[in-house]
Queue: 4 jobs
Job 1
Amino acid sequence: MTRMLASVIDWRELESAIEAGVDIIDLKNPHTGALGALPIESIRNLATRCGGRCPVSATVGDLPADPQQLTQAIGRTAECGVDYVKVGFFSAENLTRCLQAIAGLTHRHKVVAVLFADREPPLERLGEFAASGFRGVMLDTAEKGGGGLLDCMDPNRLERFVSEVRALDMLSGLAGSLRLEDIPQLHSLLPDYLGFRGALCEGRERTAGIAPHRLRAIHDALDQTAPRRERTVPALSRWLKSGAG
């Protein structure tokens, strides 16, 4: 079952997303990067306001590949009460040391890796993310003005990514300047979720405010695209049973 993730910046957008039926709320600051982080106090307040009505993820920011910085940011963000912490890996630089450090946290916190289709993502090393205890891996784009996910990676490679992540028992996600018209093609790949920001905003500008009618349009498109007998993959099944869905 492919679900909808919506990135929000404040309580108004959070409430609009919940009202529209979004499956996962993602706390992010689009003004400060691909994975721009909100202030810790804002993350805590928004997670509290959500009050368990919907799973919540939060990004730690566009951080360098430094094990200490990443682990500290994961710990601070997780302590805010979010369900998932999203961490970006913009290249394979220092990847082994970063994964070794983060592995010490994944027994306590649900961490999702974000790789970037426009930055030569280390897709051949997905098994290392699974071995380090990551709950999921998503593909995004780092440069938001350079085209969307489908402009950076062909559907066959995206399908292999989804299949490989599933085989490793992790959740898969696709994001990166996704548009309404991308939904049928990406949905057919059966990722666990599709992530949106720009498509939800006025003028499709990710730093503009979310428009409720765009939220509803994306949500309805996902519902209409879902096949009649859509299979639930093992990782998502356990995720739902854990109460995160």
Job 2
Amino acid sequence: MHGRTGRHKILFFCGLAYTLCLFSILGISVDMKNGKGAEELGRLKEAADYVDASVVEEPSKIALTFDDGPNAQCTGRLLDGLKKRGVKATFFLIGMNAEDNPDLVKRLYDEGHLIGNHTYHHVDITKKSNEEARKEIEETDRVISAITGEHVAYMRPPFGVWQKNLELEMDVMPVMWSVDPLDWTTENTDEIVNKVVTETEENDIILLHDCYESSVDAALRIVDILQKKGFEFVTVDELIIE
């Protein structure tokens, strides 16, 4: 999920190759004979420092996710804001809401956001029989795939509780979260924003909801702040498959 080690190796070898090329251009050779070693090592250090300053690490990736939509009053405004900022997010849709708002589902798909399953009725599937739980997931998949033409591969179980056996029986992967500002408990956007921007680190998955005006306001402010800090927003599949 992290992949930082691989990126560091790539950056190291790119930097090494660049250094060797630079040495060749500058005519640097490490010759310790004839008292020239100290001078040449000094030039080598200057070149290495230049390479170190010129090799920039990839930005830290994080994922912004939204549950309980699509919402006729809020989701469209959120999509406008994300599009303006060039951000892709992940939306875990309630099946009956998707059925009521097919145009928003289509827009989510067309604009490159990842769509996930959040059950048809927003139920705690651990309190349902296996058959009822499968029906909640399959019915939502049916609604969404009828609009997008694609099977919904990712699932966020309501309340964060999951039946492990369903993962073995069904072609769906559960996705949880690592940063939760509990935005559904407050309309104070400052509180939501502060909690997220102070806690978020590389590879974090942020949980918000696109059915509250305050959450939409907070989400767009969060994007603005974290982008300035150098974070890159990606869909959750990009974090999971690394």
Job 3
Amino acid sequence: MTDASVPPPRPGAVPLRTPDLESLRLLVLVADLGSLGRAAERLRISQPSASRRLSTLERGLGLVLVDRTRRGSRLTLAGQEVAGHARRIMDGLDDLLADADRLRDRREAELRVAASLTVAEYLLPAWISELRGRRPGLYIGLQVSNSEHVPELVDAGEADIGFVEGPRLSRVMSTRQVAEDRLVVVVDPGHPWARRAEPLSARELSRAPLVLRERGSGTRQTLDRALHLAGCERVRPLVELGSTAAVRGAVIAGTGPSVLSELAVRGDIAEGRLIGVDVEGVDLTRDLRAVWPSGRRLQGPAAELVTVARRAVTGARSTRAAD
């Protein structure tokens, strides 16, 4: 069954071939310069090569486009019409290339980042500062969300690169580890666990009412997964709060124990506002990862930011080893 709007090919008609851009450019130059030789010189090809290219274009379209005489080359009526179409194609191509240049310039001039709270609050400021030192004119925009939503922002094109702290991604993405973090159990100095001599067991931790981040956060994902691998049920939160700072403040105020990133509570533990409690039988370490759309090559400022992040972690490890 055929489409009635498309006329059937004429008997014996030669199928048309799509012309290549360089042949169309040559035709436009012949029209402008009135000479095949000058057109070939402009394109930096030999005149015989230009003549063969025009002949191929004519055969592909089934038309005589150029009258070749001793006084020069002149377009036929068909050639003038085809050259008009070719000129519009060339102009459109020039616009496309100019837009591509602008897009590249914009890509090199700005970086949109999405990051989970822990990475955004405790690591990214230093990474961004170093990247800005390398690229003083770079604009960096940061969206802070939980680990569940960061991949969605990147996949939707709202961010060029994302950073997550959870063990699970909400969608298939390319990833690269940039750092490692450890969760710690913390209580206020007046809590009974603060005076405990023996480590907590995984089961005790899972049964205790805790002040926790919301579901979907990387901290919560890591804790749930660690307890599951230890053969325990998920925790039943005493309070769920939407930021690390809110959870930390609630624990300091005596609301109850929590499990938070060591990055967030290191200073509080050192100054005695919080007490770290050892736990045995459960692995609370986690990878912090960069994420970007699957199948896309990481490049430009986004790739540089990942390099900065990985170098910062390597430097920190070397410093700790030296100490």
Job 4
Amino acid sequence: MTTANIKELTDSRDTVNKWMERFGVRFGVYKHGVFNEQLFPFDSVPRIISKSDWEYLEVGLKQRVTALNLFLWDIYHEKKIVKDGVIPEEFVYSSKGYMPECEGISPCEKVYAHIAGIDLVEGKDNKWYVLEDNLRIPSGASYPMIARNITRKVSPGTFATNAVADNRDYTDMLRDMMSEMCEGKGIAVILTPGRYNSAFFEHSYFAEKTGATLAYPGDLFVEDDKVYYAGMFKDKTRVGCIYRRVSDEYMDPMTFESSSLLGVPNVMQAYKAGNVALINAIGNGVADDKGIYYFVPKMVDYYLHEKSILQNAPTYLPYFKEDYDYVLNNLQKLVIKDVCEAGGYGVLFGSELSPEKLAEMKDLIVKFPRRWIAQEVIDFKDLELLEDDKLVWRKADLRAFVVTGKETKVWKSGLTRFSRNPDSFVVNSSQGGGFKDTWIMTE
């Protein structure tokens, strides 16, 4: 790449980041009890995914999310996958994400994961691996959307001369799905905890782009098992669906955490009565549990009678004796993940632990085998990015977004996150990572 090309990319990166700062495109992080808002740094060198690679990923993502939705329906209804011994009963019901309060509830169209964020990496063997399934409140789609909108303004020729799939249809997908879930029962709202939430920018952005009403704690109330929006002028408007950006345990203080001021009292009653749709459904955490992840290829086989197209990273569950022995004997070369953590926290690389820390980790696995999974380290591809005025290589993943209403659709874009630390595999924004545009080629 020439010096002129690098200067052009550098100018584009700096301009886009300045515009994002001007637009208030930020995310918040709580650390040591303090809330800090910061920019999510954008890099102007795009990730490019070929048409053939994307076609493969699209089919695999639809298959995986379909199986996960079938699993969620099953686990809160007939429980056939447990009765048939595919997944151990104890393993499911000991999951922190399993919500017994959701037993027997039948969501509209049997959809639980309306919005799924599937995290993948591309190995140096040119194979794609799924690292995590995010089915509760996956975030991040707004960042590549607004970054590309800004890029179109500052560099109009970029997309005129490259055959890249347009990514502006994500909010159309959301709008259509929410309309299907509302079933004509009322308006669609996006429930935000407020500006101190890490993804508040995204909440307000999606509300503007979809035409949904942005609702804050206290704006919604339940009457006769129906949800209503009061808003600034206290007009009473029926709500058909709630795209919630509030965690399960805080959604209804009458059912879950009684001290919560973020949710809607008695919303679970309206949900059980079928009078409002919750997007995503309460209780999805049992399916994106890092331990349940191990069983997703088995779900594909069990529910769809198909071989899983997308591969998991090679994963071991200390819950099983054979895996338990393997993990304890090979801990120094594995990645260890705490199933109770998220956002890049609770991830340990055995190769980086001292002998004393390895011994401590082994003791924890012996005492709490259900709490941990271990994975082989995938040597996934580095991507080019600009650091100051130089091109460097860093680890990166891809969060693909899958939207399910009456049918399942995969957004032809995604959130490519990268590590700014040359020695780190952790790419999460909360851990200091940045992001770049994802170009899905159409030719």
